[in-house]
Amino acid sequence: MVLITIEGIDGSGKSSLVSALGRLLENEHPVITREPGSTWVGESVRRAIAEKADPITEALLFVADHAAHIATVIRPALAAGDLVISDRYSDSRYAYQQVMLEGIIDEPLAWLRAIHDGWTIPPDLTFLIVLPIEEALSRMGSARNLEHFEEAGVLARVQENYLALAAEEPSRFVIIDGMKKENEIAEFVAGSIRDYSGWSRSRRRR
Ligand code: TYD
Q1: CB 3.0-4.6 Å disulfide test: which of 14, 145, 190, 195 passes with 24?
Q2: Cα(4) to centroid of ligand 1, in Å?
Q3: What is the CATH classification number for the domain harbouring 39?
């Protein structure tokens, strides 16, 4: 029925928002899912990240994970009329792999879009959490062994890419100030999702 995605750089508070949404939207019985890792393909993705696979291999594994996610979770849930909330989705590829594939592929964003074309299901609404890079890094904790995506320079470019995607599609994206209080963000996003689902239901009845 409605596909909502939550995006943002590592350390943006995305995952706590998604778990709060599960509680706040209990009455709507949402299907809460994620990328990578909602299917068995996710294990290969985790391995590619851990072993620092070459960027094309890594990108294609993220895309394979997306295909399996759509086939086994997203499409059936939407067909059943469910509200689906995904922690990361195709915009993660457009933002992250665009950075990782720079200098390897001519036009990374166009290439990434082309391999999604024709089979991906675009989200109805995407909440993008934006915050200063230093804040994201400090939330992740300096003691942690950072994945290659989590270096400050990479994250800054990923966030710029996200903002460019949002500027291209202002009616799909809702930008959230990640410096606001966690419960304030969660209440706002839950309210917006409720409004959007209600509007979408009434539109279908017409
Ligand atoms: P995620 O599971 O959200 O992070 P965490 O392990 O902190 O919960 O995602 C793992 C990493 O993969 C994260 O740095 C973002 C990156 N990623 C991509 O580069 N491309 C993608 O398409 C996706 C879905 C994630």
Answers
A1: 190
A2: 17
A3: 3.40.50.300
- Nearest atom of ligand 1 to the alpha carbon of 62: 22
Cα-to-centroid distance, 36 and ligand 1 (Å): 6
Rg of the chain (C-alpha set): 17
Residue 8: give the domain boundaries.
2-205
Task: Check: CB of residue 176 under 8 Å from CB of residue 188.
Answer: yes
Per-residue pLDDT tens, the chain, 206 aa: give them. 899 999 999 999 999 999 999 999 999 999 999 999 888 999 999 999 999 889 999 999 999 999 999 999 999 999 999 999 999 999 999 999 999 999 999 999 999 999 999 999 999 999 999 999 999 999 998 656 677 787 889 999 999 999 999 999 999 999 999 999 999 999 999 999 999 998 888 887 77
Of 147, 148, 155, 157, the one to substitute when testing ligand 1's pocket (max ligand atoms within 8 A of C-beta) is: 147
Name residue 186's beta-bridge partners.
Answer: none
In 3-state terms, what secondary structure has residue 87? Answer: strand
Whole-number Å distance between alpha carbons of 159 and 154 = 9
